[in-house]
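Onboarding guide, step 5: your first structure request.
Type a short instruction followed by the sequence, for example:

Predict the 3D structure of this protein.
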Amino acid sequence: MSDRPPERTRRFLSSVSEGTRERLEAVGAPIDEVAEASAVLERCFRGGGKLLVFGNGGSAADAQHMATELVGRFLLERDGLPAIALTTDTSALTAIGNDYGFDRIFARQLEALGRRGDVALGISTSGSSPNVVAGIEAARERGLRTIALTGPSGGELAARADVVVGVAAAAAPRIQEGHLAIEHALCESVEVLLARQPAADDEASPGRVLAWDDLLALRARWRRQGHTVVWTNGCFDLMHAGHVQSLEAARQLGDVLVVGVNSDDSVRELKGPERPFVAADERAAVLAALRAVDAVTVFDDVSPVSALAELQPEVHCKGADYAPPGGKPIPELPIVESYGGRVEFLPLMPSRSSTDLITRIRHGDPAHAGH
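The system replies with structure tokens like these:
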């Protein structure tokens, strides 16, 4: 096995000075995780997203410092980068603290300001500051990528953030010094990387259509982080409000929602030679754009049994028409139960189905199709 670092890490190291690399090593910063955080921020800014950063006390000062370096400049002359410290608006902080409690001061702002494509970065030396943990949880619910700067254990944030950068130091002041070195390294790296051409991404990010191997690689990381993966699948030939409602319900059952889309050949086998009306890559792209969906993959089999056996999501979702005692059979149930997963049933919206929609269109009632 090669000892060569991953491409993402090599790219990060090439974007910072030798002095920065030495400081990161001196403060006990995990280089691979810092590189991953850098890659997440680069993708965010390239995609038009913003950084929302927050913490308490000295970490609040760090949040403001980092946001300032990005909005202004760190070393290079370049366009300003959108970064907001959630620690500066005293009116919002006191109003939210008074009305909802201090633990909600960051979560409420993230609910209001965060959008898919943004990044939330929480700073906590212990990794367990309740308002930082709540902020990261709120960000994930909104579909943001999340980064945590913590101490050596990671605390509660270790199981909640997408990227956990823990400084290997015992005393809080030494951890804070490490955080500052990491924040500066991220600012330096992002400035340099944004001035270059985009890299071929060595890690698929949520909200995208993923090849099966890329999805399995992400699944391994989600497992290490203790995330609950939810899976649902279908043809999704003509999307309608019922699909959106079911997917939003599925997303509430775990930390990550993966949607499997039947390939064109498998849809023909399931629905007949005239289907699908929409090609698989287009169906997958529409699903990936939904706020509730974290990842989409196209699979070739008529049944999801093989996909479930390999991916092993903690939760497999079916429509309420499969619910016992009188529901339709679930061939994949033994597979899900064999690895310790469970099946959940999603609500159906009355008179909403692709088949019903197609029938109404064929009968010349497009204006009322789906009603």
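Each response can be followed by summary notes, for example: The chain has a mean pLDDT of 89.
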